[in-house]
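pasting for ref
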Amino acid sequence: MKIYIDGLFYKSSGIGRYYETIIKEISKNKIEIITAIPSKYKSAFYEEFKHIQSIEPIFVNYDKISAKGFIQHSLLLKKINYKVDMFFFPHINLPLFFPKKTIVTIHDLIPFTKYWDRSIFKKYLFKYFLKRSIKKTKKIICISNTVKNELMSYSKLAQKKAQVIYEFPEEKFVNNKYNKEENIINKPYILFIGNRKRHKNLKNLLLAFNELKESLNHLLVIAGSKDSKLDEVDELIYTLKLQDKVMQIVSPDDTTIINLYKFADLFIFPSLFEGFGLPPLEAVSMGCPVIMSNIPILKEIFNNSALYFDPFDIKDISSCINKVLSNDILKKSLLKNEQQRIKYFNKEEIIKKYIALFNEVVDDVE
């Protein structure tokens, strides 16, 4: 089988990491892959994938969301259409033309929620791409039942096309053979990894941490991408006088992220909305216990294994933090239960579902 996997989101957080994980695992299954990558990432792509002979990159001079790319990407797909059996887009930003045998992945429907903090234009752009994806693709991958249910309520047509295939942590986060003994932070700390968008709920996390700052001998480490030099998170840290208690690491590389997971006493995930929630799985895989919001998607992923809090209740968040950090038996028990639960997200079994779906689309004679 020879397939096209779209790589225009390569090196973007979220979808970009999903693309990297999927393309590496799919390539191990005797499947040839053609992928388009923005030319500015040519060196990075070759460095990461040079050892995989079954991946054929095409470097393009446009980005993931652009008027130029909307047209030119169509021409590229027409050109390679005869070479491949099907097309897989790890997102819904489809170009003007795309072949019938196309699969997309929907990660979340956050633009339709009150937590959307980007422009109205981007919201309507998302709506446009979503409608096209539902109407014109062969199959739709939803990364959780929560996303699938939200999609069903939006479109009845999606019910016939949607299939849930969960995400899984990358190999680098799964094994515990990480040998670097030196902790890059020389104090005990609580960890959050993710972007700083509204739905990540960093405001309530900081307010909860502020209630504990006198009694807790821990730093709060916030690591992830940042849209601007100074933002609401920075302002709140300053207002609460937490400059000495909160450490920020902007756009950390994977080596740094692994180190942060490995040595954290506790990982906290206070999100108000998610499509899946990969960081908690990564943290647990690296031996770090996790506490998290009691939102539907996180309960779907962790079931009864986790310790949940109300993400809108500052006292509940601070109480949950204190409960785990002050009780070593609870902390160890929590990690043990969560480690047992994440075995459900077995990489090999999940990749089999992708390949089965690819075969289904390839064999479709309509």
